[in-house]
Design goal:
Blueprint lengths: L4 H13 L2 H8 L3 H15 L4 E3 L4 E3 L1 H26 L6 E7 L1 H6 L1 H11 L3 E7 L2 H10 L4 E5 L7 E15 L4 H5 L5 E3 L8 E4 L6 H10 L9 E5 L2 H9 L4 E5 L12 E6 L3 E9 L6 H16 L4
Parallel strand pairs: 3-4, 3-5, 7-11, 8-9, 8-10
Antiparallel strand pairs: 1-2, 5-12, 6-10, 6-11, 6-12
């Protein structure tokens, strides 16, 4: 059997376009060249891959199976060839990083600015998504790597921990707990018992860690009801201002200048979330992506936690 890479590329284009003429236009081939490549491929495999009609080209069951299996293999081959081409060359090109909104706002602007200064030949593109989407894009290879809150499953990822970010309580100024704060700057988790809570929803990488800390301190849902679940920290802050409840937030969600209309208190015992760099396991990065990975790791590992 002598199936060529070109035959597979033409077949996958036919499978997508469902037209010999459109495939020829896409690949810069004549329609007869496309037809000949498909006849040769079917001859090598001894199976019919396509059903041709006057209007369209349809995949047989065998054709559907080949399209499903061959597409990711050819993409992996293309990625490998791109990585090989990068070896020995200066890091350059576009690098895509995914990060959740809180981390994007708190950590990534400084990293992008540093990349612009130190690696001007690289274009760093930030993909700002919810954590679940970030992990999905890392696993699919749509981005080179991601900055995330420690995910529950890491078996298929390579990762490094960058820093720890403690949770804090956010309260309106006149709330009774403001006066009960220990040493005027912190509260115990169990002091939140009985308080209505406004929390980030479960799409946030932090929510499961908040729930575990509340449950461990006797502030489970039956004692401290979650009255609102929101997708953005700003929404939670506005709800706290309106008196709907108090909130628990990662320290990185609090602006550097603070919250003028709200009170922020540390929580004791301290519960922290780990901020990590993650990428697909046992997949080497192109030279440009590796350079950015190293830069982000260096900057965020040495950045102070709040």
């Amino acid at each position: 059997m002598h199936v060529s890479l070109r035959q597979l590329q033409v077949f996958l284009c036919v499978a997508q376009c469902r037209s010999f003429s459109q495939t020829g236009q896409t690949l810069g081939l004549t329609q007869s060249a496309v037809s000949r490549a498909m006849v040769e491929l079917e001859g090598q495999l001894h199976v019919r891959l396509l059903d041709r009609t006057t209007r369209e080209v349809l995949l047989t069951d065998a054709g559907q199976l080949l399209a499903q299996k061959a597409a990711p293999l050819l993409q992996e081959l293309a990625d490998t060839l791109a990585e090989v081409a990068d070896v020995g060359h200066a890091a350059r090109g576009q690098v895509r990083i995914a990060s959740s909104p809180t981390l994007s706002a708190a950590l990534m602007p400084a990293c992008i600015a540093a990349c612009n200064r130190e690696l001007p030949q690289i274009q760093l593109q930030l993909v700002d998504r919810l954590q679940q989407e970030v992990l999905a894009q890392v696993r699919s290879g749509d981005v080179h790597f991601g900055v995330v809150v420690e995910p529950p499953e890491l078996s298929d990822l390579d990762y490094i921990s960058l820093q720890l970010d403690p949770f804090v309580a956010v309260l309106p100024p006149g709330h009774p707990l403001v006066q009960q704060a220990l040493d005027a700057s912190s509260l115990r988790w169990d002091q939140l018992r009985g308080e209505p809570l406004v929390l980030l929803d479960h799409a946030s990488g932090s929510r499961r860690l908040m729930d575990a800390a509340l449950l461990a301190s006797g502030c489970g849902p039956e004692h401290s009801p979650v009255v609102q679940e929101v997708g953005h920290v700003t929404t939670a802050f506005r709800m706290v201002e309106a008196g709907i409840g108090i909130s628990i937030m990662p320290g990185l969600a609090i602006p550097a200048q603070g919250l003028s209309s709200l009170q922020v208190r540390d929580l004791r015992p301290q519960v922290q979330r780990a901020i990590m760099l993650v990428r697909r396991r046992q997949r080497s990065l192109p030279a440009a992506a590796q350079a950015v990975w190293d830069l982000v790791a260096q900057r965020l590992t040495t950045a102070p936690t709040l």
